[in-house]
Task: structure prediction
Amino acid sequence: MEKILAVNSIGKFFKDKKVLDQISFDVHKGEIMAILGPNGAGKSTTIRNIMGIMYPDEGSISFHGRKEVPRNKIGYLPEERGLYKNVKVMDILLYLADLKDYPLKKAKERALDYLEKFDLKGKENVSVEELSKGMGQKVQFIASILHEPEMLILDEPFSGLDPVSQELFKEEIRNLANQGTAILLSSHQMNLVEEMADRLFMIHKGKKVIYGTMDEVKEQYANFKCTIKGVNDRSLLDDLPNVQRVEQNEGGTTSVLYLDNEVHPSAWLKNLPEGVNIQELIFDRITLHEIFIQIATGKNLAVEAGDLDA
Ligand SMILES: Nc1ncnc2c1ncn2[C@@H]1O[C@H](COP(=O)(O)OP(=O)(O)OP(=O)(O)O)[C@@H](O)[C@H]1O
Result:
């Protein structure tokens, strides 16, 4: 996979507080790479360093192996939303494309196509301040991709979108990656990240905790869990082998058994005692959402064991 962006061991201080420490990752052509982490972890600071809004105190960032990151090759949807208020939609789109040296005629054609795609047909001459929040976000997203950037950085692109708009964004982001755009996606919506990202980088308190493909991450950090429907006595489930913890709903009709990572699913299932009441059983892995919560709250055993390098 062709490497577009390389973040090499960057560190950043705010006064004497180190908010980024040895952060390294790459973003490849045609992939969706997610950057995740709890509030205050350092995601936006990392992105601002890539965008040249600030500079790292340690390490370096390169684009195609060169130290200069060319802004006109990058599209950026910042976390802070907002465009100039008093300007018409088409005017602002063309102005921003022009700032990136993109040909005007092509920009106009693409803008019309995208406005139609995002259900904003006919809004070209509407002033930005008359748009709803979601419509404004769509226009800002269009502005970030109009100039056909090689790399697209999206900071919380889905926040505040209704489900239909969310689908449109998802589809377009996937399309862009398929066409070769390198995408760095920061989002707190774990279900979407799990569905969309090819690889992920998780940062916690300014440091790397996870870096790898979605499959590697799942294999390494997503322990198995077994969900059993049927009334069961909790103590019976607690005593089963390889069970780390059991969660039961009120009435004990559904039980979720969180298992050790090294469990062998078929052997474990074969050894379930006959006394366990099973109306339905699902055996799968914990979700990215659960991995995230375990890491953010210090409960992930793989991380505690220092097994961090993916
Ligand atoms: N301009 C600044 N001056 C001082 N400290 C800052 C500044 N910007 C960010 N920080 C601190 O740096 C750390 C990382 O913040 P950052 O905004 O990068 O986190 P984040 O992962 O993007 O969080 P969120 O999910 O809440 O957006 C935090 O401790 C924050 O308080």
Summary: Residues 163-178 form the longest helix (16 residues). The chain has two domains: 3-214, 223-285. The first strand starts at residue 3 and ends at 14. Residues 304-310 have pLDDT under 50 and may be disordered.
